[in-house]
Amino acid sequence: MTAPVKKGRAQGLLQRNNEAVARFVFLAAACVCVLCVALICAYLFATALPALAKIGPLQFLGGVRWDPNRNIFGILPMLVGSVCVTGGAILFGVPVGLLTAVYLAKFAGSRTAGVLRPLVSLMAGLPSIVYGFFGLVVLVPLLRELLGGPGRGKSILTASILLGMMILPTIIGVSESALRAVPGSYHEGALALGASHERSTFFVVLPAAKSGILASIVLGVGRAVGETMAVVMVAGNQARLPGGVLEGVRTMTANIVLEMGYAQDLHREALIATATALFVFILLINLLLARVKRGDRA
Fold first, then answer.
1. Which residues contact 167 (CB under 8 A, 6 or more apart)?
2. Which among 46, 177, 231, 265 would be 20 to 30 A from 99, CA to CA?
3. Do residues 150 and 116 share a domain?
4. Reported pTM
5. Mean per-residue pLDDT over the chain, rounded
């Protein structure tokens, strides 16, 4: 056997060994991620189920009063508050973010996009406490002067606007990437058939990027639902069912962070059960959007 043949076989064996090591490393990383999620789920449900058994599932999920001093734990006001604030953030953030992504991907010049993209990235890097401070000193007084209301500026509307601003970087970044991933032949084909640049973008390119856009909405919803500090500062933190968008509200995340520091026994277990309900809520939203994506592909 000649030396070049031996050298080639040795290199092939070394390459196979490297590939095996790489596969093992990737598998180990994936297993660590799955294990972390599994441990979190196991802890949440192991702690939440005994609390639900003591309180009662219907009383916990459908109760309208939260009074730890009397062992009354009903999270319906917080659940409704989270849904209202998240829905308002989507109504504000998704159209603005999507139109901004379309502009950056298909309409903006290189110099304009070069200025806007770093600003969007800067928004993504701002801590939530900075957003909360902005909402407290700017949005709350502004809405109090313009609209008034029982919440005196701290309301569902204020929290929705602020959260809509916070999810913009996520929606813009992911949606722009999805739009740029659409083959240029789609746009060129529409232009060849007589469509204008605008019609080609909104009726051909945008539907083709629907999967990535839905992914951006999922990430934005996750950010909005899980946000805590900014919401605590501007939402009013009133654990009752809201009667309008100008009233104060308390979300599930705010309820947990406000009371976990001193909670004990059943109170602490009820807060962990609230976190479990939040986890299931986000999971249901993801499953719903995934079903929508599969329906569109079908």
1. 89, 90, 93, 97, 220, 221, 223, 224
2. 231
3. yes
4. 0.81
5. 84
